[in-house]
């Protein structure tokens, strides 16, 4: 198990390194458009780029391979991602990023709090009512919500709940008092929009897994021994189905952060998502590289957590790996 974990972590780091390297090289190959076009102070930009090892003291670009080496040693080894050149001129990119990260994390935590119980309950109910009208209704709704992009839900929520019914404000309140009642109320439209897709995903996966477990032979044996349907479902079916469902919840909790980028922009959430989009439009490359690294590691971490959690949750995998002498 330990060897497998080390192997997966090393592969994840290698993939991360390749992606970040590709982003850096492609950015440096872009045409050098005058910085004044984007509201940048050329003298300050020159000083910062000299310090970052991108140009020499005269403003001439140094060889790409040397720029690349300076970038690796400065960011991945020391954690120095530079300062903003246009969005937050002169401010440290890492500090700005950390100040906006709580809003993104809180939004996704709220979305998971809504999505996990609702998705599991709908999936369990659909499995217990297999091939009945309740199952057909839930399955049809799940397919619709899985197929429709999250920003469509966001516009519908804004139109009906915020504009027509006036239950919520159109955008999230400004400020950093995230745990106040008014802030939570203003965040709910974004939470609801983000939770729709996760609810549908959990419901579909739970129904499929629980339906398979309910038709297994050992449950039929339990029924013949006198257990009721509710007892067999609660004691045996759900416990075995959760072995597969729980890793999905863990991975979704990590991966959903990457999917909130569009939702954050629509509801003006002061999080990482708008910062990423603005860094592209403003050509603030230091922010772009930092946020690209963040979203890349989020995607890779969700995948590796999904694989590793199976081994920790399901004892049969660990026993099988010991019997075979490898994992």
Short summary:
This protein has 13 helices and no strands.
Molecular structure report:
With 327 residues, the protein is mostly helical. It folds into two domains: 2-76, no CATH class; 98-324, MetI-like (MetI-like fold, Orthogonal Bundle), CATH 1.10.3720.10. The protein is 75% helix and 0% strand. The protein is built from 13 helices and no strands. The protein has helices spanning 2-28, 42-51, 64-76, 93-128, 133-147, 150-164, 181-214, 217-224, 229-259, 261-266, 272-281, 285-313, 315-324. It is globular. It starts with a helix and ends with a helix. 27% of the residues are buried. Residues 34-39 have low confidence and may be disordered.
List keywords for this structure.
globular; about 75% helix; about 325 residues; 13 helices; mainly alpha
């Amino acid at each position: 198990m330990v060897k497998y974990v080390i192997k997966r972590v090393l592969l994840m780091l290698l993939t991360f390194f390749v992606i970040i390297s590709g982003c850096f090289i492609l950015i440096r190959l872009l045409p050098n458009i005058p910085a004044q076009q984007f509201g940048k102070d050329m003298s300050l930009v020159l000083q910062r780029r000299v310090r970052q090892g991108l140009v020499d003291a005269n403003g001439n670009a140094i060889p790409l391979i040397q720029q690349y080496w300076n970038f690796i040693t400065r960011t991945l080894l020391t954690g120095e991602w530079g300062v903003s050149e246009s969005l937050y001129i002169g401010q440290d990119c890492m500090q700005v990023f950390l100040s906006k990260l709580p809003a993104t994390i809180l939004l996704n935590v709220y979305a998971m709090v809504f999505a996990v119980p609702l998705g599991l309950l709908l999936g369990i109910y659909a499995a217990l009512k297999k091939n009945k009208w309740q199952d057909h209704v839930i399955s049809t709704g799940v397919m619709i919500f899985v197929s429709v992009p999250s920003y469509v839900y966001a516009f519908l929520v804004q139109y009906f709940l915020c504009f027509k019914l006036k239950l919520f404000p159109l955008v999230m309140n400004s400020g950093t008092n995230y745990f106040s009642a008014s802030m939570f109320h203003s965040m709910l439209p974004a939470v609801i929009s983000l939770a729709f897709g996760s609810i549908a995903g959990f419901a579909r996966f739970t129904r499929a897994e629980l339906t398979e477990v309910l038709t297994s032979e050992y449950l039929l044996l339990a029924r013949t021994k006198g257990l009721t349907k509710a007892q067999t479902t609660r004691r045996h079916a759900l416990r075995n189905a959760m072995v597969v469902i729980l890793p999905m919840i863990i991975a979704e909790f990590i991966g959903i952060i990457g999917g909130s980028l569009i939702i954050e922009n629509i509801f003006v959430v002061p999080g990482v998502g708008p910062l990423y989009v603005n860094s592209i439009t403003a050509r603030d490359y230091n922010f772009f590289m930092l946020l690209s690294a963040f979203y890349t590691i989020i995607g890779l971490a969700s995948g590796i957590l999904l694989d590793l959690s199976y081994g920790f949750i399901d004892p049969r995998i660990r026993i099988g790996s010991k019997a075979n002498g490898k994992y």
